[in-house]
Amino acid sequence: MSEKSFKSGDKVRWDHSQGTTTGHVVRKQTTPTKIKGHKVAASKDNPEYIVKSDKTGALAAHKPSELRKG
């Protein structure tokens, strides 16, 4: 299974409970971290992408499978 790949600055969109949000990739996270007190269990084998919402400016972590270029 090939992983979706994004790079810093890529425009992306993702679904959430209120619909779809757009933003851009800040970085690929390959080590555990925290965002707003929430644990991000990223690793080299299970990376997540830190994205910044265009609407709110908030940072969030998403698995590659949750993101679409857009």
Automatic annotation (TrEMBL):
InterPro entries (UniProt xref): Hva1_TUDOR
Name under which the protein is recorded: DUF2945 domain-containing protein
Q: Where is the composition biased (Basic and acidic residues)?
A: 1-16, 45-55
Renumbered to this chain, region (Disordered) spans: 1-70
Read off the lineage from the record. Bacteria, Pseudomonadati, Pseudomonadota, Alphaproteobacteria, Caulobacterales
Organism annotation: Phenylobacterium deserti
Every copy of the Hypervirulence associated protein TUDOR domain together lies at 9-67
Biased composition of type Polar residues is found at 17-33
